[in-house]
């Protein structure tokens, strides 16, 4: 049996007046996901346990079959794994965004991506920050785009920090770190602003009419989690395809091999088709491939309705469509498509409501074939609700047949 998961990050949403009360999923042209919902099995998955903040870290742990209440320690250590960093017992890893803050007299979170700064520009900045601010206590590591990492040796983790994408357009004073160790973290953030004010990369970006990366923002801290490898639990070999360190880090903890795809960016210009083609190629040797597409989430954070619809349509045509056509070359398969969490346009950040999923199996009797389309309202009407969400992986990999037969009975 071959298994493929296609995850559109933040794809789910709320009804929007501008498009006659439809969600972006309902407004988008998605014949391939609709086929999966109509011919396969459609339902809702609850990926965010009560008491945890909605986000791709918690949600994707759930999708991969881990109970976040038992395994989640923070976003930072998951991204550290992707960078190949071995955290010692006292190390605390922080996500380190390069951000654009507004006027210094009352700084606002103008852009949590620094205008989607390129990885090359960002690497130069992070390396220079590490030269100026790095020490035996603090180390900075470059990642992808605006997403980077800081490790605090023997640091404090019991801090209250805020994701920068939650406070776009707001004064940052109300969202600075709080708790034991907050003074040190704030000091690093303020020192970075002095270093970055006249950094050559920023001078060039300003000259080109682009937003400068004029500060770091530290958040998502935690120590290394204890996670049993997914590949060991199910005796399978699998791979992860993603442009972002978070998913690649989760994949590494799960025992999934990172599958390289040229041209992946974590944005709307990513190589959608390349992800699907590489996944199909990997399945010749692997049992399981997870394809992650970040673009719908980025469009939700930007509040771009047109961009979100376009990214969903690109995912459907270039990823889902390519996979559905190519997977026919394998005799036995299951394909799962889903959103990990909503990133509503109106909120411009994550929310914790359940999201739609659809599974299409080569075994016809495993499909409920309800005729529904792939969207939030149809998934709710289906009556199939997986909660807590981490149970879906076990059903998908080994128990789908009996589960569907029970639903049919």
From TrEMBL:
Its EC number is 5.4.2.-. Belongs to the BPG-independent phosphoglycerate mutase family. A-PGAM subfamily. Gene3D superfamilies: Alkaline Phosphatase, subunit A (3.40.720.10), Metalloenzyme domain (3.30.70.2130). One of its GO terms (molecular function) is phosphoglycerate mutase activity. Residues 1-376 form the Metalloenzyme domain. Coiled coil: none annotated. It catalyses: (2R)-2-phosphoglycerate = (2R)-3-phosphoglycerate. Catalyzes the interconversion of 2-phosphoglycerate and 3-phosphoglycerate. It is an enzyme of class 5 (isomerase). This is Phosphoglycerate mutase. InterPro entries: Alkaline_phosphatase_core_sf (IPR017850), ApgAM_prokaryotes (IPR023665), Metalloenzyme (IPR006124), Pglycerate_mutase_ApgM (IPR004456), Pglycerate_mutase_ApgM_sf (IPR042253). Pfam families: Metalloenzyme, PhosphMutase. It comes from Syntrophus aciditrophicus (strain SB). Pathway: Carbohydrate degradation. Keywords: Glycolysis, Isomerase.
